[in-house]
Amino acid sequence: MQFQVPQFIDVEDKIFGPFTFKQFVYLIGGAGLAFVMIRFLPYPLNWPLAIAAGGLGAAFAFVEIHKKPLIYFVEAAFWYFVHKKLYIWKKRDKKIDPSAELSLPSQANAQVVIPKLSKDKLEDLAWGLDINEHVAQSRLKEQLERRQSLNEDEFNKLEI
Asked: How far apart are CA 56 and CA 31, in angstroms?
């Protein structure tokens, strides 16, 4: 049974002429906001704000940055300015008191044991890894030789 695999799923459908639904909503919203500003704001302010509103609607409809619509970046900027910021690191100058006595490490720090890797231990570890690798390779060779010597029925019965 064959199934058809959908293709071009990342392309939005053109509903209103050459515009997608989102583009159409942004354009109509920008034009409507521009109309309201022209109609109800006083003369010196209405035309510049109306042009800005229409331009913003057109930008939302058509501008893409790194193949993402402009609205994603506007939303990210909004949330960046609204939310609190967490500063992880701030440099502070330490004040050193010369009259303070130097103290020995505390008892809790003295109990921490840091293992040291000597040259002998490192050689033992390397030798053990080399031997284990050699043994594993020899076992693999033996199994391959045994498989080649078996006939097909015996080979199917063999479990590895």
From this structure: 10
Among 81-90, 128-137, 138-147, 151-160, the range with the most confident prediction by mean pLDDT is 81-90
Give tens-digit pLDDT for 128-144: 777 766 666 777 777 77
Give 54-59's long-range contacts (Cβ < 8 A, gap of 24+). 54/30, 55/30, 56/30, 57/26, 57/27, 57/28, 57/29, 57/30, 57/31, 57/33, 58/26, 58/27, 58/30
pTM score: 0.49
pLDDT band at 56 (very low <50, low <70, confident <90, very high): very high
Q: Please report whether residue 63 resides in a domain.
A: yes
Radius of gyration over every alpha carbon of the chain, rounded to an integer in angstroms = 37
111 lies in a domain?
no
Closest by CA position to 62, among listed 70, 54, 72: 70
Work out how many domains the chain is built from and give that number.
2
User: CA angle at residue 117 from 115 to 119, to 5 degrees?
Assistant: 160
- Structural tokens at position 106: 């505390």
Q: Specify whether the CB–CB gap between 57 and 74 falls below 8 A.
A: no
Q: Supply the range of the domain harboring residue 130.
A: 117-157
